């Protein structure tokens, strides 16, 4: 039987596929470019729906979405960020610390909406299909929801910033999150004055984007393909594809 | 100052945005529909590049990609799946167990490529910007890379299945993954005969898709918006958006 004939036709136009890649390459972690324009309900509903269509282990859909707009709530979270960030800065050596202290790392008060995405580990009972041997799979599902939302937001012209410099227990207290629910992501969400071309940390000289071809192994950790033409050919394709991302797309 | 004038123009066409949403809504966890057609290097390079453009804490890019094509490697992983799956089945009560045993949960040997995505927790040294207070952030970054790859694959007509019913230590042994590197995701990748309209587990009656409006809280865990018109209006928009996803898109 000819397997070619069994294969489903691709239902994406070139433009649709380019749209996805545009979102992936131009998504940024936004900290300093939020503008106060309100987010229409229809737009917020679409990005939440995108999150809800994430994959989830055992189809458990363990996520919840806490939409935070009360300035008093944001102020308390920002206070905790300030405390955590001072602790964080002190962990770096002098040279890095000087750079660290100059970085803007959150837009909690400026972003019109803050969003806490949580994982309810009990949502599908104690035994979950697919979580039996990798217990963190429900947390991973929730992270997939975050990434869906992040990409959808980019396509809607909305910036998202993930704030992880917080004390998780303090966040739990501030938002009244029960013990068994895990706050996975704290996000700032809003329209932006611009999306930066490069990640903030790359621009600031904190770290560089790594060459992807150095991160690809064959058939085992560290496997270089044993000099096979197939491995060399894939690595060359990776190099060329990465080279072309300088134009802001994946082609 | 008029904030409207500060806001960046959205650089997405309607078709590009629709492309992203099409990938999000029609992405499936594929277990049973792989066809053996080889994946061209250019296509594989694009989906790997999509993964590499995931957000990462402190821009640490902690991921590596193990591309597994050797049938002997796949056979050993499949053997471990078989053992783990038997253990998993026994954890369900009789009624669920009967359904569980009928489900096809992996395409390890059929998919032309298996891909293990790992997280190197030491890639940026011991102190990582943004990981100081939430130590799992590097693992989360790696999961974001998985989700980027999954969506890109969908837009390329490639199915992806995430196999989590494996013993992580056995997988580490089989692939020679060092102790300090975490295998986060084991994926099966290949062209498919079809993408199912609904998730396999929904079709099988395992669990249903939850109403999204029940998962949205306001300003605190369990907060219902205190009867505000703003909260009611957002929830109505969410309901309507979810309703329209029956047509296979987010609009």
Describe the structure.
The structure is a homodimer of 251-residue chains. With 251 residues, chain A is α+β, with helices and mostly antiparallel strands. Chain A contains nine helices and five strands, in the order αααβααβαβαβαβα. In chain A, strands 1-2-4-3 form a four-stranded antiparallel β-sheet, sandwiched between helices. In chain A, helix 3 runs antiparallel to helix 6. Chain A starts with a helix and ends in a 7-residue tail after the last helix. Chains A and B meet through helix 1, helix 2, helix 3, strand 1 and helix 4 of A and helix 1, helix 2, helix 3, strand 1 and helix 4 of B.
Give the biggest beta sheet of chain A.
4 strands, antiparallel
| Rg measurement of chain A, Å | 21 Å
Helical run tally of chain A: 9
Kindly estimate the percentage of residues of chain A that lie in beta strands according to DSSP. 5-15%
Helices and strands of chain A: which structural class?
A: alpha+beta
| Most residues in contact, chain pair and counts | A-B, 132 and 132 residues
For the secondary structure, the number of strands of chain A is 5
- Supply the CATH class of the largest domain in chain A: Alpha Beta
Comma- or semicolon-separated keywords:
homodimer; 251 residues; alpha+beta; NADH Oxidase; 4-stranded antiparallel β-sheet; 41% helix; 13% strand; globular
